[in-house]
Amino acid sequence: MTSSLLRTVLMGALGSLMLAFGSLGVGWLANVSALRRTPLIIWMRFETVGVVVSVVALALGAMLLVRQWLRLGQKLTPWGPSSARWVLVAIGAWAAPMLVSIPLFSRDVYSYIGQGRVMLNGLNPYESGVSAIDNFFQLGADQLWAQSPPPYGPVFLWLEELVVVLTGADPDASALLFRAMCVLAVIACMWVIPRLARLHGVNPRRALWLSVANPLFLTNFVVAAHNDAIMLALALLGTYAAAVQRNWKGGLIGTTLVTLSVAIKPITLVFLPFVGLLWAGKNASWPRRFVVWVLTLAYSLALLGLMGAVNGFGFGWVSAVSTPGTVYIWYAPIGLLGLFAQLVASSWGLNGSAWMHAVHSAGTALAALTTVVLMFVGRDSRIFRRLAWSLAAFVLLSPIIQAWYVVWLIPLFAVTGIRDDWQVDVLFFITVFFTVYAVADQLDIFPYLDLNLIAARVIAALVAFTYGVYLWVLDPATRRIARNQALHRGREAVL
């Protein structure tokens, strides 16, 4: 068994290495990056053969990593104490090549640099986009952020400014420093997730495999260096503090950490009412719950107000995250429904954009209503599960669902229990879907090659999709029927 597990870890590391190698050719690299003068990178980026090699290596590497993640879970069942070491070894081995890869699947990390420069120049980033500073496009930021306010809170604005000060806005050094912050957040998640699982009677080693070892988690939080890693780590630490000490001390610590998370990205405001329930204590009366909810909100707003007073921007992030728009993605139910409403309204000579916005707003309102219902309905022992469904409502009812939005949810469901049946199948499918979509969607292709961006995306999609179908249908070790048969044998052995 040891040799089999080692082979799985090493094959996953190979997939991660292939992913890092592919990033040299199609990862997001600033125009002024010194790496562009490296002979290997020149060949991989500016020669058609090199780009094809990069695309295929990226797609195969990402899907190989998905396969080995699933195989690791199969081989470690029934998740005895010795499995913890293997999960940690796998996370380390698979994440190591990602530490030095060029950013993949998103170039938001370069927008962080631009926003840090805006801060450093004494401008209000909620009023001035990254284009307010010269040379913004050469530093890798997407033109989407040229005039757009950042949907981030004051703590992350300070972190952006700090990185720019330390690196002189060098894009490569800045990306590595942002990645280092995210790695620290991943380590924090590795610490807190098993502890949250134990609180719920869930196997902590399996929860860690489902969440942190998941390729979606590692690619979005390490390779892409999304600030969501910091946001999620603070939110999980805060809810854990409130759950361990269900009193005033735990409530204050928990609310403080969750508020810091909100000051990274405001979506974790959803955590506050459930932290309030933990703060109120077990079987608290309704009057006590209402009092604690008020105190939780007031304390959090006071901290955010203090931060806004220090940076001089107040609550400018509220308008930044609530600005209406027509951004949607085809696989998001609300996004698809909004598009349909727009087409219908336009065909009738009406304002299609207004109809789309109305659908998007209805989705947000329904998510908020779901949160309110879950605040009042459910057992005290299921507070974390109610929180998971509340956050899931905001993700699923959003007009755009990014892969890192899904990663927010995985730890919360993992620590409260994902069964070895259709539930783990759903997670497997989601992991494969977003991996295939990511490798085909986010590619940095030189526009003057014989191979254009669309063709490169088609190649990546075909390679990754074919591998995904193979995993689901044909692979003797991973196909759905084989997994269910193995599960059935495992249950018989236990009985």
Automatic annotation (TrEMBL):
It is a multi-pass membrane protein. GO terms for molecular function: glycosyltransferase activity. The keyword Glycosyltransferase applies. Keywords: Glycosyltransferase, Membrane, Transferase, Transmembrane, Transmembrane helix. The chain crosses the membrane at residues 9-30, 42-66, 86-105, 176-194, 206-223, 229-245, 257-279, 291-315, 327-348, 354-377, 389-410, 422-440, 452-473. InterPro entries: MptA/B-like (IPR049829). One of its GO terms (cellular component) is membrane. It is found in: Membrane. Belongs to the MptA/B family. NCBIfam families: MptB. This is Membrane protein.
